[in-house]
Specification:
By secondary structure, the chain is α/β, with parallel strands linked by helices. Helices cover 39% and strands 21% of the residues. The chain is built from nine helices and ten strands. Strands 1-3-5-6-7-8-9-10 form an eight-stranded mixed barrel, surrounded by four helices.
Length: 261
């Protein structure tokens, strides 16, 4: 067989392989592949962008961060890890919490839920360490693990935390969890009453059909002021609607009166 025929056949085989590989493995998961190679894509059609941070972001340059952009839009809000279980306080929480307010970002604090620890104790630990102020977004409960709890047991524990912390601040706390986790463990209609912050990566559109407020769409975002990756989020609404979620000054006054007594 002539050499040119062998080379032509080889090119056709390689071309067919590349086409099939892209069609079946890359195309349907383009967001995932871009994330793997450090090139996150961003959902279209959303105006309000934000971040969530913890000690993993180390020392943040807040001056640069406050002026950074995502898709040409300013960063409006930041969720900050505060506590976990009944003994862990994020080492950078106090500084991050202070700096967020000083740099004109809407802020909130979140608690990472430990399913093997009493939910009421976790709620009281969070309230002892975190003191939200007027104009802050509602507190956040981050639920990602069920441990040895059944669906009913986990729902009861989550409900206890939300009730205690929500009652303290007079607001509905934000509930953070993944798309699949919510479908399996927190699909009860009662949890739809809480602003839902959904974690769902590598998709251009959410498959979740229920009401939601925030979408954590990538864990490999890059912004000025933060070295390395950071979680990026969008708010499902207008800036006015985002501000409408914040804690009212009258509620904070009542909280302070209650704490002093």
């Amino acid at each position: 067989m002539p050499l040119w025929a062998l080379l032509t056949g080889l090119c056709l085989v390689v071309g067919a392989y590349l086409f099939l590989f892209y069609y079946f493995f890359v195309g349907p998961f383009s967001f995932r592949w871009k994330a793997i190679y450090g090139e996150p894509d961003y959902p279209q059609g959303y105006e309000i962008h934000g971040l969530d941070i913890s000690h993993y972001q180390e020392n943040i340059d807040w001056e640069r961060l406050r002026n950074s952009r995502i898709q040409g839009k300013p960063i409006r809000f930041v969720f900050i890890k505060a506590t976990e279980g009944v003994s862990i306080i994020d080492e950078n929480f106090n500084d991050n919490f202070y700096q967020a307010r000083q740099n004109d970002l809407l802020r909130s604090a979140y608690h990472f839920f430990s399913p093997d620890v009493d939910a009421r104790k976790q709620a009281r630990f969070f309230l002892k360490q975190v003191h939200l102020e007027a104009g802050d977004l509602p507190p956040v409960l981050d639920v990602e693990k069920a441990g040895d709890l059944s669906v009913a047991q986990l729902q009861k524990a989550v409900r206890e935390w939300l009730t205690i912390v929500g009652g303290h601040y007079g607001v509905k706390p934000i509930l953070y969890t993944g798309y699949s986790f919510k479908q399996k463990y927190l699909s009860s209609p009662e949890f739809d009453e809480y602003p839902y912050w959904i974690a769902h990566y590598y998709v251009s559109e959410l498959e979740y059909k229920g009401p939601w407020r925030f979408w954590q769409y990538t864990d490999v975002g890059r912004v000025d002021g933060i070295r390395g990756n950071v979680d990026c989020n969008i708010f499902n609404g207008t800036l006015q609607e985002l501000h409408a979620l914040t804690i009212d000054a009258d509620v904070i006054d009542l909280v302070g009166l209650h704490d002093n007594n």
